[in-house]
Amino acid sequence: MRIDLHCHSTASDGTDTPAELVRNAAAAGLDVVALTDHDTTRGYGEAIAALPAGLTLVTGAELSCRVDGVSMHLLAYLFDPEEPALLAERELVRDDRVPRARGMVARLNDLGVPVTWEQVERIAAGGSVGRPHVATALVELGVVPTVSDAFTEEWLADGGRAFVQKHETDPFEAIRLVKNAGGVCVFAHPAAAKRGRTVPEARIAEMAAAGLDGVEVDHMDHDADARDRLRGLAKDLDLLVTGSSDYHGSRKTVALGAYMTDPEVYGEITRRATGAFPVPGTGGA
Question: What is the C-alpha separation between 9 and 19, in angstroms, rounded?
Answer without folding.
Answer: 9
